[in-house]
């Protein structure tokens, strides 16, 4: 079913046979999720192996979507779909039993146990259906009203097990109760079947609980149905009324995608500015009242955009390579089934060939579009097009939610209550409402139109809207003359501190941190906020940034302009490398905070901001915003009730990174005050390196690290933050340790000691080398290549374009964190070998072809570039940090004196030695060249 041909064929047969709900065993779809087509919805549950094995799915007609209550994927053999019906709900369990081979006998018990667990969560009085491929033969013979008298064949052991299951759960086997000819009973035809040797069995069944036995009006197989499968579908007719779930009325959403078309953009631009200009004239004659101004502005923006864009029809191009000719051949093949097997096979072969040609033509058309975009140098839309072609068509997500007790939340109501309880507990706090503010006379200046224009222009497009439903795209359509109303509104709010109600409400959407996340704490809660509020907060951010930045130490690399993960990685790697050279052991602790952003205490945050000298107006806005905020959690397009948010900084708010940094700075300033522990460079102790909440503690001795960690743990607790001691790790980096190292103990718990750890996406180890990291990077890049192989190996695309795609999507994965790498000769050879592997795969060259690397490079019309890219980026990075005073800590780490003595013998290859060797310069000459952009550019030019 994972192939487009099979999927389209199934939909065609479903429509022809007028099937409303279709269960599919061995669907072979990877992961779990929902796939939407023009006429159907497919709910599927599978595994993530590369062979597309097993899997179950249920397809329903689109008009039944409103009746679906819940979808519960259990495994790649069992899933549940619940439908609202009258007089009771329908619960459909789709199954796929292990095959009858002896190797799969051990899987039968877990299979039935999974079904039992699902049934235990269902109400006995509801209509419960279990259907699918049971790989069991029940055979002929009545069994106490469980099995009818019209089965087929002889019962086997699997059949006894199925009958026992039906007796335990009061099910009846529906397709054994209707007197039908054998051709309407058998469900599976063996590959060994011939007219002379008939091998047909009844191994697929539809089970229904005894109470609803009489609701089944018929159940029979359709041997004429054809999807080129060895199974025939069982179709049961059931008399029951489905009930439509009445969803709350939704306001029409503003379709900003229409603004990509010039006509739509011009039409909305004219209408919006006309309406806002009229409102602006009215408001200028009225006294200041932020609530009234905001309500009127919101109404005009939303109503005008909705009215104009809803009246514009944009024809969407349907992208599908299936043609009418192929569908006609599928129909012809179906008519030949059970009539002429040879002609059937011939037509099937023709279908496969036609599909290949049609798909090649479709791929060629897509490639031509990519080529045209490349010729126009429109790389944004080019890469977007590639993602559209190569991206997953299915929403591959985990849909199972467990409550606090580990029970599955089945209904939408249970999910809403589970999320509501979790969010209430997560953001509940006993904060003080009496916070000492600073001098009221210390107010900020009026907000200017220039600030508003800059904030609107810098706002990002394509973001989900908040409760006010105003996207930033339509704010950007306003002319400068019509921004006066926003300037006045912002100043009214800024001066009074009264924030509109819409700005205090946000919607939480949940994003899983890991695959197959099932508990609430395995998700991130991202706030969807008003875009107008984001513009306002951008102005506040720009005003307070410099003051906050002046109070952040050089050891913090996260959420700061000009800093990134590469700086934190470089600082860590080079510092430990230099300590290794000087025979000095470093004791490292990788701290993991539990929900750090969600546990910031608001009263302490305001006190910190007051102490650094924020204006009264800025402080009042931040206080009122955080003290009165409420949120709702969105679950399957349904919202929970309002929840008070009493702590934490919102993930999705413009101010949050800045506020978290200053909050964390206060913790470490207090925790590390008057401490001497750390690695001493030029007499300055460096005892921590941070990237947002990812923290490393550094010490030159065990006792120092023990003291540092306990102080940080205690002070963090005073500020509401908790260190997760299970995920916190300790590592000792040194050539030799003179004596056994005791355990690091905090809160009576031992911190795990490791030999390697992942930090900011890179693997660091106690040998302080990059061999493991580079091997992992190569395999990750290889995986990225394989995911795009149908594009990178597509001969319809020019070789130069495919090489460029590889540079963008494969080599970018390979070279993450390259600025911090120290390479040995062996590592360089590995990188070069991988680059050639990519080119050979692009050209589809086998190792048996015996084509040299020189010839391969000529065929792609390129020189080997990965190693030169490494050299270039490392040299550019050296110049970058040497020319900028903000990197004073990194300059100190690279150039400062570290205590200790070198051991006899050859020194290890160092970060600087790489550059000295590659460019044949001394260390002093490198530093001199680094401060000159011209010299760096000339050195890079020599690489070519």
Beta-strand level of the residues, as a percent range? 15-25%
Q: How far is the first residue's CA from the last residue's CA?
A: 49 Å
Task: Based on Cα principal axes, name the global outline.
Answer: globular
The biggest sheet amounts to: 6 strands, mixed
Based on the structure, what is the oligomeric state of the protein chains?
Answer: single chain
CATH fold name of the domain at 64-242: Deoxyribonuclease I, Chain A
* CA radius of gyration: 33 Å
Write the CATH architecture name of the domain at 64-242.
4-Layer Sandwich
The number of helical segments is 30
Spatial arrangement of strands, main beta sheet? 5-6-8-9-13-10
Question: Helix share of residues?
Answer: 40-55%
What is the level 1 CATH name of the domain at 64-242? Alpha Beta
Spans of at least 5 consecutive residues whose pLDDT stays below 50 are none
Number of strands: 34
Question: What's the CATH H-level homologous superfamily of the domain at 64-242?
Answer: Endonuclease/exonuclease/phosphatase
Give the averaged pLDDT, no decimals. Answer: 87
Structural class: alpha+beta
List keywords for this structure.
944 residues; Deoxyribonuclease I, Chain A; six-stranded mixed β-sheet; 30 helices; 42% helix; globular
Structural overview:
The protein is of the alpha+beta class and 944 residues long. Among the domains are: 64-242, Endonuclease/exonuclease/phosphatase (Deoxyribonuclease I, Chain A), CATH 3.60.10; 256-310, no CATH class; 324-390, no CATH class; 771-943, no CATH class. The strands form 10 sheets. The chain has a 6-stranded mixed sheet, with helices on one face. A 6-stranded mixed sheet has the order 27-28-20-30-32-31, with helices on both faces. The protein has a 5-stranded antiparallel sheet with strand order 1-4-3-2-17, with no helix packed on it. The longest helix has 35 residues, at 341-375. It starts with a helix and ends with a helix. The model has no long low-confidence stretch (mean pLDDT 87).
